[in-house]
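Field reference: sequence -> structure
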Amino acid sequence: MRAICLASAVLLGAGALTSCVPAADAAIQTDFNFSVLPSTVRAGGEVTLHVTRNRACRGEAAVDSPAFDPVTIPRGETWTTVVVDRDAEPGALYDVEFECDGSRGFARLTIARGRPAHHPDRHPAHHPRKGVHAGEGGTLAGFDLKEIGLGAALIAGSLGVAYHFARRRTDGDAG
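Structure field:
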């Protein structure tokens, strides 16, 4: 009987942990919606940055990434086009940060392998200001203190409930 209770506690704890893990390549959403289209482009190619206007994003939207120069989407507009740096690392993933009226969110931009796209009228003569996003950097990357606390509370609660039922059952069996 104890084995069943222990197995239940382990399964509840595992379920609590997996419910706190974010999807790997999903854009982190905020109070407003945004996108990078296409999400995969060659170095030197163009991407369109979209922002959906709502109560959370009425003003100017700032967009920044190591793959291109910072841009703003003016109030009243919903998109702008940028040219990706010609020296962006093929195969690399870059974070694209959107910020509007105090809310922030991130999307991913993948640089396709192959020769840079050719734009005869555009020759960006600048270098990236930040490094390539090359990995999460550890087991806790992407989690904040609230998520860790919530996961720990769910696990502790699951174990407490399993212990309570195990003790109650053994006390009832003894009498």
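Note: The CA atoms of residues 50 and 79 lie 4 Å apart.
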